[in-house]
Amino acid sequence: MTSETVIAAGYCGVLLAAALTIDWLSAHTHRRSLRYRTAGFEYRHHEDLWVCPEGEHLWPHGVDHHRRIVRYRAKAHICNACPLKEQCTDSDEGREIVRPLDPWPHSEAGRFHRMISLTLVVLAALIAFVALARNHELADSATLGALVLASALVGRLLLRDLRRHPANFPERLTL
Q1: Three-state DSSP class for 172?
Q2: Cα(90)–Cα(70) distance, integer angstroms
Q3: What is the dihedral of CA 124, 129, 135, 139, to 10 degrees?
Q4: Three-class DSSP category at 18
Q5: Which of the 8 DSSP states describes residue 69?
Q6: What letter does residue 151 receive in the DSSP assignment?
Q7: Nearest-CA neighbor of 53 among 90, 28, 78?
Q8: Beta bridge partners of 73
Q9: Burial (Cβ within 10 Å: 0-12, 13-18, ≥19) of residue 157
Q10: Which of the residues 19, 61, 160, 168 has an alpha carbon 20 to 30 A from that of 96?
Q11: What is the per-residue pLDDT for 109?
Q12: Count of beta carbons in the 10 Å neighbourhood of residue 62
């Protein structure tokens, strides 16, 4: 195997690992942020409401379609009389929880990080293709071909969610 193949294979491997790491870390950070903001609260999907640790309900207060979020709010008089208010909120209008309408890959941050990851995968595939075109020995071809296949599989994995759901862009205007 040539040194060019070894260097190209190593670089492709690093790019693929970086793409998967970026994608995983951004999803993990998103989930962790949601857990932090809603710690102690329980979401009841079938009723579309949150329940606070004291058993009070936070009902949908408004939907912001531009930001793609739903705001849930408890009644102010209930929160203001709650013994845990100081630990929960400093608002006199009641505790508010914001929930995204879209799952992580379809949020703006999710699409941004997913596209960075896909760019790294494309770069890895491009490097492997160029190295494959330059090196034709069996060991080189097998190694670089495996990296092209790995790039295709990782790219398919990352593209799956983006293809399934559009980017929530406005409908096309017809005149």
Answers
A1: coil
A2: 20
A3: 70
A4: helix
A5: E
A6: H
A7: 78
A8: 59, 96
A9: middle
A10: 168
A11: 80
A12: 10
Return the structure tokens found at 134: 């330059």
Please give the pLDDT value at position 167.
54
3-state secondary structure of 97: strand
How far, in Å, CA of 56 to CA of 51, rounded?
6
Rounded to whole angstroms, the Cα distance separating 56 from 95 reads: 10
For residues 38 and 35, give the distance between their C-alpha atoms in angstroms, rounded to a whole number.
5
Which residues partner with 44 through β-bridges? Answer: 49
All structural domains of the chain with their residue ranges: 3-29+107-164, 38-102
Q: Can you tell me the distance from the alpha carbon of 122 to that of 11, in angstroms, rounded to the nearest whole number?
A: 13
Cα separation values, 67 from 70, 106, 134, 173, Å: 9, 12, 48, 21
Contacts of 34 (CB under 8 A, 6+ apart): 99, 100
> Which pTM does this prediction carry?
0.74
Residue 164 — pLDDT band, cuts 50, 70, 90? low
Where do the DSSP E strands lie in the chain? 42-44, 49-51, 57-64, 69-73, 96-100
Largest CA distance in the chain: 77
